[in-house]
Specification:
The protein is of the alpha/beta class. Helices cover 35% and strands 20% of the residues. The two termini are 41 Å apart. The chain binds NADPH dihydro-nicotinamide-adenine-dinucleotide phosphate.
């Protein structure tokens, strides 16, 4: 891993074509502070970063201006594709140098889960705001260290919870908060997909920190919390495994879990790497219900309540997310659903409690 990350810096970044007009436009942008465009570098140029980069083309408040990668061929490609100048290209070993780059405001960490902590702290030390993908880390201890590092550095830490800005989701949340469903006492969350290539990092505990729960089950955890509007006080969980070779030690294939809330509400959820088309939320109350399917995929999200379907037009989630995050950073806008480090940490506490419940077979209590 480190070998492919060591060689790059001197290896000709400066020889890659610099688009002078682009550089000039960056300088202008920097000086026109009233534009408040969040200038973002993406770290880890994999499949999700590619999706984010495409989505950012239509952002109005955020702009892709830089990359951090361990793969020189990707840097070259991204420079050409997104007009990124060589002085905004970094490797994992040169992240500290971003400190001196006035054209980058924030770095979006989109690397494997187990690298989030190291990468987030490196970016914070370079004095740049951090947007970090979910799960924010592979343990709550790591999450706390990330929050502390960003606080010490005086930079923001935001977690890539794109659903927190999605219109249908926010509509259901507002209806729940307004009492439209009465007392909401039950949530069902089903989150899963069939995972392919057995050699990918998601099935390597050292890089993923866990299996389906860390990757996709976390959507049901998060969804239960934002749709019920409460924090769980206990969890129970059960694991099943059909393929112990593909899903080795520490990589959960399927976990069913239940969460209990202070109001008496309960959540019943399924997290799996072995079923496709599993993306559904159901919220039931004394006066009505909301159902979402798909509920957290890239969209369009489909949602309906006892009163009929919701009709929000589809907007690429990552476009909205990045524009909204720019507003959070520059204008200190308060979102309806938080996306800060503490929010990421709450999900990690629950992931840990679920793993503990699987292991012990016991109900695990959580502090109120
Ligand atoms: P990919 O494997 O497609 O990309 C990860 C990238 O990280 C690689 O391409 C590589 O980029 C970089 N990297 C650095 N070190 C390593 C290493 N040791 N092994 C492998 N890759 C490395 O993963 P995804 O893009 O799918 O996922 C990345 C993160 O984004 C995860 O945390 C995941 O949970 C999250 N995610 C979030 C989604 C959402 O909807 N919010 C959806 C999908 C993923 P390079 O070659 O440039 O160094």
């Amino acid at each position: 891993m480190s070998t492919r990350r060591h060689f790059l810096h001197q290896a000709g970044l400066t020889t890659l074509a610099l688009s002078l007009p682009f550089a000039n436009s960056l300088a202008q942008e920097s000086s026109q502070k009233d534009q408040r465009v969040l200038r973002v570098a993406l770290m880890g140029l994999g499949s999700y970063a590619t999706r984010v980069a495409e989505a950012m083309k239509t952002c109005t408040k955020a702009k892709l201006v830089g990359v951090i990668s361990g793969t020189p061929s990707k840097i070259e490609l991204w420079q050409q594709k997104y007009g990124i100048p060589p002085q905004n290209c970094y490797t994992y070993d040169t992240v500290a140098e971003i400190k001196n780059n006035k054209d980058i405001d924030a770095v979006y960490v989109i690397t494997p889960n187990a690298l989030h902590k190291e990468h987030t702290i490196a970016v914070a030390k370079a004095g740049k705001h951090v947007i970090c993908e979910k799960p924010m880390a592979i343990s709550s201890q790591e999450g706390k260290e990330m929050i502390a590092a960003c606080k010490t550095a005086g930079v923001r830490l935001l977690i890539g919870y794109r659903m927190h800005f999605e219109a249908n989701t926010l509509d259901v949340v507002k209806r729940q908060r307004a009492g439209e469903f009465g007392k909401t006492l039950f949530f069902q969350g089903l989150s899963g997909f069939v995972i392919g290539n057995p050699s990918q990092w998601r099935l390597n505990k050292a890089l993923s920190g866990g299996g389906a729960m860390m990757d996709i089950g976390i959507y049901s955890i998060n969804g239960a919390r934002y749709l019920l509007g409460e924090e769980p006080i206990w969890v129970t969980a059960q694991e099943s495994k059909t393929d112990p070779v593909k899903f080795g030690e520490g990589i959960d294939e399927t976990i069913t879990f239940q969460m209990g809330f202070p109001s008496g509400a309960t959540a019943s959820c399924l997290s799996t790497y072995s079923l496709n088309y599993l993306d559904k939320f159901f919220l039931s109350g004394t006066k009505g219900f909301a159902e979402m399917q798909p509920s957290t995929g890239y969209g369009p999200i489909k949602a309906w309540t006892h009163s009929g379907p919701l009709q929000h037009p589809h907007v690429t989630h990552q476009t909205t997310q990045m524009d909204e995050m720019a507003a959070l950073i520059f204008d200190d806008k308060q979102p309806l659903l938080p996306v800060d480090g503490e929010e990421g940490l709450k999900d990690l506490y629950l992931v840990e409690a679920i793993y503990q419940a699987v292991k012990s077979g016991q109900k695990v209590s959580l502090p109120r």
